[in-house]
Amino acid sequence: MREITVRVDGVSEERYADIVNAIWMQMNAIGFDFTVTPDDQAVPAQIDKRWDEYSQVSWSNGGRRGTPQAIAAGADQTGIHRADSRE
C-alpha cells in the first residue's frame, strides 16, 4: 500500500474537518480502496458533525435565483445547453 502525508498548520477544528472530509470525498469519488486516518488531536464527532453540515446546502435556496448549481441544473432541465456541457 502507498501512503500520502498531508500536514497543515494553524487551521481551526472546522477547517481541519473540511480538509479530512474533502480528502475522503475525493478518494471515494475516484473509487479506490483507501483509508483516511485523522491525527491524534482530531475528535471524530467533530469531523462527523462538519460532514453533516454539508447536507444543509440547498440546491433550491440561496440568492434570488438559487445557488449556481441550482441555476445550472434548471438551465439543463429547460433544454438550454451550457457551453461546457458538450451537447
Task: Give the strand content.
Answer: under 5%
Q: Give the ordered list of helices and strands.
A: HHH
- What is the radius of gyration? 18 Å
Q: What is the overall shape?
A: extended
Unreliably modeled segments:
none
User: How many structural domains does the protein architecture include?
Assistant: 1
Mean pLDDT: 80
> What is the CA-CA span between the terminal residues?
40 Å
Q: Give the number of helices.
A: 3
Structural class: mainly alpha
Mind summarizing the main beta sheet? Answer: none
Number of strands: 0
Descriptive report:
The chain is an all-alpha fold and 87 residues long. It has one domain (13-79). It is 45% helix and 0% strand. It is built from 3 helices and no strands. The chain has helices at residues 13-30, 44-54, 68-77. α1 (13-30) packs across α2. It is extended. The termini are far apart.
